[in-house]
Design a protein that fits this description.
Length: 491
């Protein structure tokens, strides 16, 4: 649906903070935005909103097209359509329709940061052939740079446009736009407007952010991504930007962030987005961070990346970073001062496993292990994984997403069974924690087909064969209300 009057008013108010002398000139649009009518509809009188794209090339020239209806040379633009979610989206659609230039050929400019570079109110003559009386256009004009050095081909919409020309800024046909462009100092050179952080622990793990899946308007919805975001007017540098974003998104401070690379990605609006990447070390527990955006944070090793919902560009970036920092041949060492490095003499390592007990209508969710799986090949088992340097609840949330696309909240799970076991006398002892999820989001999907062949809901009174022994024992114990089991210990 088109942008609301309240969102358009906010855009105007932000614009007026930079151009307070235009309050009187924009009194008409502001009055219309306070009324009950839809100012984005072309039938709204005495005026309505339109959007234009101001495209600046490397030589600081601005694309103009000649409209057949008026014969005037103007920047590409037009009416808002029902599918335009934002004013910026309307401007991008218009330049794609009228000049054949797709959003992927364009970048936003630092000077405007995605806000209109000019808002112009101009009269439109009556058009009796269309039954249109004289009215006004409130034109929101957005500035873009070309993403590449070479100009893209201009393919005109023949029924509406009769020609195109790149004009020097001093020749821009709109006086208000010309003044704004000359004053802004646009140079046509794209530069990063976003900053993200590659945060790792120096031992092969990367801190990744699972973004919301139910917000299709955001960038990378439902994907594992890096923390970061867009530059804001108060940010003096992109280092300020990434530090602010880490604080706002996760209450996180990383001491020594360093520039790593500039990468291009496709933004939520389809434009090309150059991102300044920083990298830094951190050794904390993601579960303790006060996350304000997205679903969760987790430490992840590179071997997990192919099995996660992640943009190919993000995966390639992280894999490149990991390849530049190879671990010792004997694997990651315990950080100095860690519990593992300082274990008391005589301590025996106990492996901690987390398990998801998911019950629905008298049925429990089980997965059929791949025949070639390193553990319990060909057997049925609950969703499970090994705890790394993380809270058990955080591990379960991470494993549920990685293995089955299930979204859990730590506050919605409870420990219902603990199994302390050793399958063979030579094995390390294991503490197997079974958590029941009271609520979850999603239906189980195969995310790791090399480990699990299928997910299925089984009647609790008719469990399948073969099934992992301690899983069967845990399920029966949960049904009986018992919280603890020991297996494999000789007395």
């Amino acid at each position: 649906m088109p942008p609301s009057s309240s969102s358009i008013r906010k855009t105007v108010e932000t614009y007026l903070e930079r151009h307070p002398d235009e309050c009187d000139a924009l009194a008409g649009p502001l009055a219309a935005l306070d009324g009950p009518v839809d100012v984005t509809a072309r039938t709204t009188l005495p005026g309505h909103v339109t959007c234009s794209a101001v495209i600046v090339d490397r030589r600081c020239r601005v694309l103009h097209i000649r409209h057949r209806a008026t014969g005037l040379m103007l920047t590409p633009g037009g009416y808002i359509e029902p599918e335009d979610r934002t004013l910026l989206a309307a401007a991008l659609r218009e330049v794609a329709e009228e000049a054949g230039i797709p959003p992927g050929s364009l970048c936003l400019t630092r000077q405007a940061l995605g806000s209109p570079v000019d808002i112009d109110v101009h009269p439109i003559d009556a058009n009796p052939s269309k039954g249109e009386p004289a009215h006004e256009h409130y034109d929101f004009r957005y500035a873009f740079y070309l993403a590449e050095e070479e100009q893209p081909a201009v393919t005109l919409q023949d029924e509406e446009v009769s020609g195109a020309e790149w004009l020097a800024m001093a020749e821009v046909t709109s006086p208000t736009l010309r003044a704004k462009l000359l004053d802004a100092g646009l140079d046509g050179q794209p530069e990063p407007l976003n900053a993200s952080a590659i945060i790792h622990d120096g031992h092969g793990r990367y801190l990744l952010h699972l973004r919301d899946a139910d917000k299709p308007w955001i960038w990378e919805p439902g994907c594992w991504s890096l923390l970061g975001g867009g530059r804001e007017p108060q940010d003096r540098t992109l280092l300020d930007t990434v530090r602010r974003e880490l604080r706002e998104e996760a209450g996180l401070t990383v001491a020594d962030l360093e520039p790593y690379a500039v990468e291009y990605v496709t933004g939520a609006d389809g434009t090309r987005v150059p991102i300044q990447l920083f990298t830094g070390l951190w050794h904390g527990d993601p579960a303790r961070l006060p996350l304000t955006e997205g679903v969760m944070l987790a430490w992840v090793r590179p071997e997990k990346f192919p099995h996660m919902t992640m943009l190919p560009s993000t995966r390639e970036l992280l894999e490149r970073h990991a390849a530049e920092r190879p671990l010792p041949a004997d694997g990651p060492a315990a950080p100095a001062g860690s519990a593992q490095a300082e274990a008391p003499s005589g301590t025996v390592l106990n492996v901690v496993g987390v398990h998801l007990y998911l019950e629905r209508d008298g049925h429990v969710l089980l997965g059929l292990r791949h025949p070639d799986s390193a553990y319990a090949g060909g057997s049925w088992h609950v969703l499970a994984g090994h705890c790394e340097a993380e809270a058990a609840s955080a591990c379960l949330v991470r494993e549920a997403d990685e293995e089955a696309s299930l979204v859990l909240e730590p506050t919605d799970i409870e420990l219902v069974r603990t199994v302390h076991m050793r399958e063979r006398p030579t094995d390390l002892p294991r503490v197997q924690l079974f958590f029941r999820a009271r609520r979850w989001v999603g239906e189980p999907k195969l995310r790791e087909p090399d480990k699990c062949l299928s997910w299925r809901w089984w009647n609790l009174k008719d469990l399948p064969e073969p099934i992992v022994d301690y899983t069967r024992a845990a399920i029966k114990g949960i049904q009986a209300g018992r919280t603890y089991t020991e297996l494999g210990w000789t007395r």
